[in-house]
């Protein structure tokens, strides 16, 4: 059964955040809130966590996982980013955007798009997510909590606990965070390509 953690959305309890971070370090798969919708998260190098996310979401090997980063220092270690792209990404973060970029050697091979060798990265604008990333001290491997054959992500922590009780190890609940996933912009070809229109404004990339 999944452990259930309830935190304040604006002032999350440090002891609770620390407990969730410890569980992630020990290989747990957690459901947690972001500034777009809930996500599944696990430690960057966790093969088991990756396999479980693929199973829950019924994903193939062409799916772009997202590396949730606390700041640009973390993001810059994971992807190759030139000056023009840097300015565009910087202007849009933190926020509800995922950027697809060529990965560095710091990213485990099983996370990369098999042909493009790219990965998704984002810096969230959400108090609880940022608190978790700060406590964890490393990027969090993530994927939107959108179940197969369902049009919208799950939005309530109690419902996630109920539906995925035996598939995740923990649920971090800070209340409703919306149903719209991030806007996804692919910069791997140099020019921005909008792959998915979501919560982030796409005007600057058009």
From TrEMBL:
Pfam family, one: Sua5_yciO_yrdC
PANTHER family found in the cross-reference section: DHBP SYNTHASE RIBB-LIKE ALPHA/BETA DOMAIN-CONTAINING PROTEIN, THREONYLCARBAMOYL-AMP SYNTHASE
Presence of keyword Zinc-finger: no
Ranges for domain YrdC-like: 14-200
Transmembrane spans: none
Identification of the protein by name: L-threonylcarbamoyladenylate synthase
First-level EC class: transferase
Keywords: Nucleotidyltransferase, Transferase
Record-level Gene Ontology MF annotations: L-threonylcarbamoyladenylate synthase
Annotated signal sequence range: none
Source organism per UniProt: Streptomyces wedmorensis
Gene3D superfamilies: DHBP synthase
Enzyme Commission number, as recorded: 2.7.7.87
